[in-house]
Amino acid sequence: MLKVENLKIYYSTPIGFVKAVDGVSFEVKKGEVFGIAGESGCGKSTLVHSLILRKPPMTHKGGKAIFKGKDLMKLSREEARKIQYKELSIIPQYAMNALNPTKKIKDIVWDLAREHGMQDREEVEKLLKERLSMVKLSPKVAEMYPVELSGGMRQRATMVVSTLLNPDLLIADELTSALDVTTQRVVIELLHYFMQEGIVKSIIFVTHDLALLKQIADRVMVMYAGKVVEIGPMEEVLESPAHPYTQMLLDSLPRMGVHYKRQKLHGIPGYPISLLNPPQGCRFYTRCPYAMEHCPKIEPKLVQVSKEHYAACHLLGGEGSA
């Protein structure tokens, strides 16, 4: 479905390049939900947005992103627009504010459908009302403006717009970050439903919340400071995290159950490094309790922990530049 190889996406600034995504590789398979996790500023949102459309100061500095035989990094603006929503679609980070407030939902959808070659407005509006019903919204919502909807309703309306043309790959970027727990569950169930009904074939789900990912993802990639530090099956990464950052990220989350009632939460000390001038070695070494002398000098490569589980840490013997 999607294969990303050594992708580098930087931001141009007056004092140099911010290396937001620096040599990232992964693959999304057909029929799976692929999670991308990490703290704010780790590069996860930059990564997924670069697949859709790159605007200055975002700059592609190297690597490939092969989607259905095409390198997304080589598409012109016009070519990218043709596949957006139809083959590759994104529900943006602030989905509740993503809809044009001056247009009714049906007009937003009609503009999108017409841009992709659909000519029968009656047919488009019929499809819209069917999809609104799928996400438990009244067909009357089609006649409303976004400002007339509650936050949760706008969220679901945005999901309808983003999936109306049955994209092969749907990217959900921090879709649940501004939602209460009940609404989060509704959103997760809707994404599952979209997969079951064949509305989308695969999903990339971006979040800082590993516990939430457990409810939806088949595999997860953990990022830190523009690098992949761990990747593998969701359950295995949660139960047996191999990288110190993943371990500490999990320790910072509350857990349910009698076994954890005395558990103390532990934050990750220190601050992320500047991506203007990152060290040539491990980017987590300044915050890592296991840091060794060679950690800031030699970049650890991803090494195999189990069949499909990889992590980049010198504790695992991952010496040498990846």
From TrEMBL:
<feature type="domain" description="ABC transporter">
    <location>
        <begin position="2"/>
        <end position="250"/>
    </location>
</feature>
<dbReference type="InterPro" id="IPR003439">
    <property type="entry name" value="ABC_transporter-like_ATP-bd"/>
</dbReference>
<keyword id="KW-0067">ATP-binding</keyword>
<keyword id="KW-0547">Nucleotide-binding</keyword>
<keyword id="KW-0813">Transport</keyword>
<dbReference type="InterPro" id="IPR003593">
    <property type="entry name" value="AAA+_ATPase"/>
</dbReference>
<dbReference type="GO" id="GO:0005524">
    <property type="term" value="F:ATP binding"/>
</dbReference>
<dbReference type="InterPro" id="IPR017871">
    <property type="entry name" value="ABC_transporter-like_CS"/>
</dbReference>
<dbReference type="GO" id="GO:0016887">
    <property type="term" value="F:ATP hydrolysis activity"/>
</dbReference>
<dbReference type="Pfam" id="PF08352">
    <property type="entry name" value="oligo_HPY"/>
</dbReference>
<dbReference type="GO" id="GO:0015833">
    <property type="term" value="P:peptide transport"/>
</dbReference>
<dbReference type="InterPro" id="IPR013563">
    <property type="entry name" value="Oligopep_ABC_C"/>
</dbReference>
<dbReference type="Pfam" id="PF00005">
    <property type="entry name" value="ABC_tran"/>
</dbReference>
<protein>
    <submittedName>
        <fullName>Peptide ABC uptake protein</fullName>
    </submittedName>
</protein>
<dbReference type="InterPro" id="IPR027417">
    <property type="entry name" value="P-loop_NTPase"/>
</dbReference>
